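Our consortium's second objective concerns turning raw sequence data into structural hypotheses that experimental partners can test. To show how far this objective has progressed, the report includes one record in full. It was chosen at random from the queue rather than selected for favorable results. The single chain below, 424 residues long, was entered without modification.
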Amino acid sequence: MFTRNRIKISEKLLSLSWQRLLGRELTSLEGKRFKVIYPGRINNDSGPDFRDALIAIDSSELVRGDIEIHVKSSDWYSHGHHRDPEYNKVILHVVGCDDYGLATLLQSGKSIPLLSLSKELREQSWLMPHHRLPCFQVMNRMDEQALKKLLHAAGEERFKQKAILFQTGLSREEAGQALFHGMMRALGYAKNMEPFEDLANRVPLSFLEKPELSQSLLLKQAWLLGTAGLLSCQRLKGETRELGRIWQLVGQGAETMEESNWHFSHVYPNNSPLRRIIAQTYLLQRYHESGLFHGVLQLVREAPLLAANHALEEGLIVPGDGQEKVRKTALLGRSKADEIVVNVILPFTFSWGEICHEKELAEKALEIYLSYPRLSENEITRHMARQFCLEGSSDLAACHQQGLIHIYRTHCREGGCGECPLAG
C-alpha cells in the first residue's frame, strides 16, 4: 500500500513544493511567521535555486531576495555556501529536514530563517507534485510485478520504435553511416546531440574509413576536432599543438563549425564533447580493419547471451589514454557504453537483421535488450520512479527503465493520462 512516508524527499521535489507555497502562511524553525508573496524564478545557472523571491515577514515587512533549497540543512555548509558571497542575497533556506540544528549563516555573517518542509510534505497532499495524477497511487491498484510487466511491454515498444527510426535511416544512407550517426548522437547527450549529428554529416564514416585515414588515429582526431572548430579553444592542452599542425596541413578549405556551436556550461568534464569526440576516434581505430559497421555487428554476433552486456561493454569502453583500461579516467566508461548498447547498438542490429532477413541476429539483439541489466539513472527515470513509487526498487532492468522513458515521452509530457496503460 502506498503512503507518502515511502517517498524519499529529493531536492527537486522540495523545489516543486516550494513553488506551491504561494500565498501560504508559514513559520520558520526560528519561530518567524511569513507569507510567500512570490516564490521567485528558477535559476538554471550557478548560485541559489530561485532568484528574486518576495516574502512578507510578520504580515508587514516585505523582503526580496533569493531562495536556496536543500534536502538537509547541513548541505548549506557541506556545499560551502557560507563562504560564497554569491549566496549573500538568500533570504530563506528551505530544507527537507533540519539535521544541523544551528543557524544558516551567510558569508556576510548575517543569519537567515530556515524552513523545513518534511512535515508539510507528509501531511498535506496538495504539496505533492503528482497527487492529482492517475498513476500517483498506482501501487494501490496493482502489485509491483504487474507494474513491471507493463513497464517491460513499454520498454519493448520503445526499442521497436528506435528500430523503425534506424530502418528509416538505412533507407536513405549507408548502413555504416546510420550506425555512426546514432553513436555520435548518443555521445552528445542532450546538450550536444545536434552538434554531434552535424559533425557526423560533415565528416562521414566513409571519409574517416578511407585507406589514407583509417590507419592513423591522429588524422581522425585532427579531422573531427578541426571540423568541429575545437582545436583552437585550448581545451586539449598539450595535444592541441600537434593536432593543430596536422589540421593546418590537411584541413585547408574545409567548412568548419564554431566553438560556440558546442555546449560546455553545466556539462561534467568527463562528458565534455572534446573527450567524447576523441573516444569516438579510438573506437574507429579499434575497428579500422573490419570497419565500424562490421565490427559492431560481429560484436553482437559473438556476444554470449548469458554475459552479453559484459562483452558489449568491453567492445565500447575507451580508457583514459586509449590503451590502459583505467575506469576512473575513461574517455568512454562502462555507464556510457551501456547506454550506447541499449539505445543504439541493439536496436540498430535488430533493424539490420530485419531488413537483411537475418532472423537469428534480430532475435538475438532483442533478447539481449530484454535481459540487459539496469543502466545508470537519468533525470527522467528518477522522476518517473518517484511518480510510480518505485524508488529504491533494485531489480529494475534496462527494459523497465526504457519503459519509464517511453511512458513519460508518449503520455506524461503529452498530457495523455487517459490513454496511459497505468491510468487504471
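The partners drew two points from this record. The longest strand covers residues 61-72. The two ends are 16 Å apart (CA to CA). Both points have been shared with the crystallography group to help prioritize constructs.
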